[in-house]
Structure formats: C-alpha cells, structure tokens
Amino acid sequence: MPEALLSARGVSVRFGGLTAVNGVDLDVHPGELVGIIGPNGAGKTTFFHTLSGVLKPTEGRLVVAGDDLTGRAPYVYAAHGVARTFQTPRVFRDMPAADNVRFALEFAGRLRRHAHDAFDDVETILGFLGLAEMAAVPAGALTPARQRLLEIGVALGARPRVLLLDEVAAGLTHTEVDATAQLIRRVRDELGVAVIWIEHAVRVLMNYVERVAVLHQGAKIADGDPRAVARAPEVIEAYLGEDGAPERIAA
Ligand SMILES: Nc1ncnc2c1ncn2[C@@H]1O[C@H](COP(=O)(O)OP(=O)(O)OP(=O)(O)O)[C@@H](O)[C@H]1O
Ligand SMILES: [Mg+2]
After folding, report:
1. Which atom of ligand 1 lies closest to the CA of 15?
2. Domain for residue 1, yes or no?
3. 201 within ligand 1 shell (Cβ under 6 A)
4. Does the beta carbon of 91 sit less than 6 angstroms from any atom of ligand 1?
5. CATH classification of the domain holding 31
6. For residue 251, what pLDDT is reported?
7. Is the predicted pLDDT of residue 238 greater than 70, yes or no?
8. Which of 25, 71, 97, 146 has CA 20 to 30 A from 237's CA?
C-alpha cells in the first residue's frame, strides 16, 4: 500500500457532554473510493468537518499527504488537496453555473498551482458533469440533481486529490441517484481522485464503493468489503430501529 493520502488517528469531537465522534481511525489511499454509512446522528458529517478543517477535533490527529494538519484552517486542507461538498448544497444561486465553477478554479489556482491540470477549464468540468448546456443558467434555477452535480464541479475546480461528498444523492430520484453514483465512479476512474462518500442510500452506495466504513454513535464499528460489512452482526444491529433497516444495508 502506498502512503495514505488522508489519515485520521483517534479523532474525537465532543459538543459539551455529547461525544459526536469517538476515537475514529481512517486511512484513505490515493485513488480509493470509500463509503461512510451509519444511522442518523452517527457522527458522519461531524467527522467530515474534521477531515476538511471545518471543525477542530477535541482529540486525535489529521495527516494529509504526509503533513500533520490537526487544528489548521480549512484553506490549508484545501491547499493539500482536500475538497468537499456540504450536506446542504452551497452554490452561488444567482451566479451562472459556469461562473460557479470559474470562481472555484480561480480560487483554487491560487492555492494549488502545481496540481493536476486535466480539469483546468470551466467547459471541461461542465462537460464532464453533463452540464455543458447549462453553463449560462443561474445555479439556483437548476434542478436539485443538477445543483448537486454543480457542487461536485465546484469541488473539482479546487483540483482535489481527495473529494469528500456528504449525501450528494439525498432527495434525488432513483434514476438521478444512479447517475450521480456513476459520476462519482468516473471522478475516481478518470481523474484518479480519491473519494470519501457519505450517503443515506446505503444500498446504492454499497454497489459502487470497494470499501465502506460504518459509524455508530460516533465510533467506527466496521471498515472493509461492502458485502462483508453488510453481514456483520454489529452493523445489522446498529441499523435495527432505523426505517427499513435490514433491507437498506443488504448490498
Ligand atoms: N454543532 C453542534 N453542536 C452540538 N451538537 C451537534 C453539533 N453538530 C452535530 N451535533 C450532534 O452530533 C451528533 C452527530 O451529528 P452528525 O450531523 O455528525 O451526524 P450524521 O451521521 O451526519 O447524521 P445524518 O445522517 O442525520 O446527517 C448528533 O447527535 C448531532 O445532534
Ligand atoms: Mg450528516
């Protein structure tokens, strides 16, 4: 195995008396596509916040591309090649789709001049996403599914080495979810960008990732091959009580 691109060691986050993330270790290597699942409130988003510098962990270390970035600001993570989307999309709604991507490219250009340049222009990124025809449309006027794609485009504009996706398929139709999942695969396959993907649509996610980590009450309870993880008794138990639980985790 090559050196990990991103390494979380014993990461905990406490909000007052609540431990939202509890001693989580995670290594992600270049070009890996890793899913993170877990019931509502398991700590998935909070853990992502620590991986991107949005939130400083109460305990533990974050190492990105060999550098210890624990406690550093989000732009330092971005400069090291970490890009992310948010559970609630954050695009500039009044700006055309193309300008959203252009803004990201220009901002990232200052941060990461020497990063891979396969995706150096707005047209290429919009074309990759299937949004070429939408270049002039204000982001807020795009369908929810296209806004999600645009958000991925904005993240790609930062020329990441690793892309963190927080429920980019939430609220989409079955067809849109599959299309989004295929796009995520292409990000990894065609751009060689590692992806860490949180999703509630567990069954879809399991079909597209090679590895999945499960969070439950802040702790990582499984990490490995999706089929093996879906059969693990502690994972099945964690999902009991969730709506449609056993079917949802069956790959
Ligand atoms: N800023 C905060 N202050 C206090 N508690 C918080 C804060 N952010 C999250 N929490 C709590 O931390 C726990 C983990 O929340 P988090 O949003 O990380 O879960 P999640 O796995 O992303 O859930 P979901 O599947 O609903 O998105 C929850 O109990 C949540 O209420
Ligand atoms: Mg969340």
Report:
1. 4
2. no
3. no
4. no
5. 3.40.50.300
6. 42
7. yes
8. 25
